[in-house]
């Protein structure tokens, strides 16, 4: 269900590009672990790298309800590309929502224009779940800041054109953190060797080391000390993106397993006609629909300007757990064929795992939800 | 340089297509109708020339009401405006009659360059560009795999079975293109939104001064007498190699006139 005719047109365009450009290439790129930078430019030129931001700054002016369905559609063909779009969109959030008018006018048109790609640097080697204890520092030096420290698990490291860096400019704890927007070419900003990941291999992830990396003061987002709040708000929105990716991935696994079960015969019957397997598929299908409904209902709260943090946490938790279960069961439906790389379901299963970890592990989502229940 | 691009709506060549039972014209009602694939390359070529040399790009379609959908799609790629000739009397027109209508419409737009696809996937007669050029008294550079614009001189690499020929002409001219000429762009989301506001001029036959009996099924210079279903695929021939596999393969290829 889409709210407008233009959203219909948008989704049709996305399907066309996903079918023609993404679906035929995903298996090769994943096998080689190659980042499809040029394909992200194709998406960018089509206007898909700034969908939920205002048109006056070059965005698509779309509600989250629509943007998330675009992500879902992309994720059914290629999770790493959908995640890339989601991370880029996350990386534009601090400027778009906490930048001054002047900063938005100066920075956003390029960031949303489609040619550039962003990264979001919050996690550190010593901890991702507790970013308030981060140790990366920025100290004021004349008309800029000098950043020192190490960020880890940075998606698009080495390929991004701009990096949002959350770093300590003041006291210990959450109130001493600020958000700086660094150019990729900043001297002293050094992406490290790529991590060797279980899945999502076409998405580059690496540490980024900052060694007296100088960022001009006019690239500080919000006030000094508000960085943690910005990071958490950005993640509320970002988690919806991850949840939508999970729905798309689970849908792909369900579709593949269903097609297979309708073709494959054992004991002289299609395996889908064995109740034991048909019910497994029924549970998978129900999980996908429920996850999608939860994601969209949280998105509609956000679009209406209502509080949505807890609903976003629930959607991320439920959708990514559902994706893990559905992709695991899809391997089961294919039997031995599910365990080999000739079919995509083993890849789906490896890919689903990361969604339970990024942008707040699912334990952290439960923490958000239970804290809300505890305080009422 | 002002350019007119010819865009035809055709039944999707990837799906089941057929002729209407009653008058043996292409069945457009039950088909999934899309922009003729080759025309997307024509649009792309026009846009590239516009980007390099300026001017306006106009989409021209002769076709039923529902072709308006394809016109919007074409406009979403970037052309500035469109002209749609739509008239019930056009139903069943032959290539000659269609070229007359197209030439009359092009005459109104007086472009420097007309670009079309080299063929449409429904009719596949490949003659429309030549006919238009003849009617307008201008050069036809057809089957291009490359087009270079230098002032008022057009140079085309004309694709042939053996290779290519280099042909040149002065504008105005008609150029038809193959899918080897470029890689068509995707529309952008902004392009889709903008296309809804672009002007589309709708004309009837009367507007072009063409009488109804000059076109349509009754005025057609050719007629479809009979049409049948394509014969079902024959089962393949299996060659078992008993030491003479090579000979048998050559015999098979010779019997099918491949060698
Ligand atoms: C492929 C990939 C891409 C990533 N991309 C980015 C990126 O672009 N930018 C970025 O900043 N980060 C990124 N991350 C980092 C990711 O957000 C962190 O890995 C995640 O937040 C967890 O942090 P951690 O790995 O340090 O685990 P830890 O925080 O050490 O957690 C270890 C375990 O302890 C559990 N745990 C921790 N605290 C609690 C608690 N209070 N209650 C219960 N359980 C708890 C966790 O759930 C987890 O199971 C990425 C990670 C991966 C794998």
Automatic annotation (TrEMBL), chain B:
Cofactor requirements of the protein: FAD; AMP
InterPro entries: ET-Flavoprotein_bsu_CS, ETF_a/b_N, ETF_b, ETF_beta_N, Rossmann-like_a/b/a_fold
SMART domains: ETF (SM00893)
Record-linked PANTHER family: ELECTRON TRANSFER FLAVOPROTEIN BETA-SUBUNIT (PTHR21294), ELECTRON TRANSFER FLAVOPROTEIN SUBUNIT BETA (PTHR21294:SF8)
Name of protein: Electron transfer flavoprotein subunit beta
Ranges where the Electron transfer flavoprotein alpha/beta-subunit N-terminal domain occurs: 23-212
Keyword set, alphabetical order: Electron transport, Transport
Protein family per UniProt: Belongs to the ETF beta-subunit/FixA family.
Keyword Metal-binding: no
Organism: Rugosimonospora africana
Subunit text: Heterodimer of an alpha and a beta subunit.
A GO term for molecular function: electron transfer activity
Described function: The electron transfer flavoprotein serves as a specific electron acceptor for other dehydrogenases. It transfers the electrons to the main respiratory chain via ETF-ubiquinone oxidoreductase (ETF dehydrogenase).
A single cellular component GO annotation: cytosol
């Amino acid at each position: 269900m889409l709210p407008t005719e233009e959203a219909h047109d948008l989704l049709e365009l996305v399907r066309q590009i996903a079918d023609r450009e993404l679906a035929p290439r995903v298996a090769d790129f994943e096998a080689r672990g190659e980042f499809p930078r040029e394909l992200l430019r194709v998406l960018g030129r089509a206007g898909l790298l700034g969908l939920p931001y205002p048109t006056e700054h070059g965005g698509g002016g779309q509600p989250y309800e629509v943007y998330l369905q675009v992500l879902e559609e992309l994720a059914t063909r290629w999770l790493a590309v959908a995640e890339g779009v989601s991370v880029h969109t996350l990386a534009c959030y601090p400027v778009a929502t906490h930048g001054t008018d002047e900063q938005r006018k100066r920075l956003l048109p390029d960031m949303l224009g489609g040619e550039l790609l962003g990264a979001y640097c919050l996690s550190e080697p010593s901890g991702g779940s507790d970013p308030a204890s981060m140790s990366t520092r920025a100290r004021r030096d004349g008309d800029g800041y000098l950043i020192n420290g190490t960020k880890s698990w940075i998606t698009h490291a080495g390929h991004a054109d701009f990096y949002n860096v959350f770093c300590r400019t003041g006291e210990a704890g959450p109130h001493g953190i600020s958000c700086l927007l660094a150019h990729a070419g900043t001297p002293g900003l050094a992406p490290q060797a790529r991590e060797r990941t279980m899945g999502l291999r076409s998405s580059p992830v690496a540490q980024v080391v900052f060694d007296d990396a100088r960022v001009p003061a006019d690239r500080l987002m919000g006030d000094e000390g508000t960085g943690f709040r910005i990071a958490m708000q950005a993640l509320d929105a970002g988690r919806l993106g991850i949840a939508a990716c999970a729905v798309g991935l689970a849908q792909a696994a369900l579709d593949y397993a269903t097609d297979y079960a309708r073709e494959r015969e054992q004991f002289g019957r299609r395996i889908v006609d064995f109740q034991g397997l048909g019910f497994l598929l029924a549970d998978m299908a129900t999980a996908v629909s429920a996850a999608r409904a939860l994601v969209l209902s949280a998105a509609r709260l956000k679009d209406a300007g209502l509080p949505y943090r807890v609903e976003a946490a629930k959607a991320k938790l439920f959708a990514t757990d559902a994706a893990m279960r559905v992709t695991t069961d899809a391997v089961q439906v294919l039997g031995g064929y599910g365990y080999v790389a000739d079919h995509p379901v083993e890849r789906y299963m490896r890919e689903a795992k990361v969604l339970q970890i990024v942008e707040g592990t699912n334990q952290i989502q439960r923490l958000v939800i239970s804290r809300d229940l505890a305080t009422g | 340089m002002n350019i007119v691009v010819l865009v035809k709506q055709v039944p999707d060549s990837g799906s089941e297509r057929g002729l209407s039972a009653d008058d043996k014209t292409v069945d457009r009602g039950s088909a999934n109708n899309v922009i003729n694939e080759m025309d997307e390359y024509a649009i792309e070529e026009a846009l590239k020339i516009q980007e390099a040399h300026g001017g306006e790009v106009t989409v021209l379609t002769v076709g039923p009401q529902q072709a308006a959908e394809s016109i919007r799609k074409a406009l979403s790629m970037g052309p500035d405006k469109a002209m749609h000739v739509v008239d019930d009397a056009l139903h069943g027109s032959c290539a000659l009659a269609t070229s007359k209508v197209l030439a009359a419409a092009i005459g109104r737009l007086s472009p420097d360059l007309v670009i079309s696809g080299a063929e449409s996937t429904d009719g596949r007669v490949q003659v429309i560009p030549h006919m238009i050029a003849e009617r307008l008294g201008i050069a036809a550079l057809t089957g291009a795999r490359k087009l270079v614009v230098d002032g008022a001189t057009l140079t085309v690499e004309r694709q042939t079975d053996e290779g290519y020929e280099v042909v040149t002409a002065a504008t105005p001219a008609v150029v038809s293109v193959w899918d080897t000429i470029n890689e068509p762009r995707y529309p952008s989301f902004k392009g889709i939104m903008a296309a809804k506001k672009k002007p589309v001029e709708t004309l009837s036959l009367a507007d072009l001064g063409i009488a109804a009996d000059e076109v349509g099924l009754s005025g057609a210079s050719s007629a479809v007498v009979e049409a049948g279903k394509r014969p079902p695929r024959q089962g393949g021939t299996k060659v078992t190699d008993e030491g003479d596999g090579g000979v048998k393969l050559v015999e098979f290829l010779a019997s099918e006139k491949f060698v």
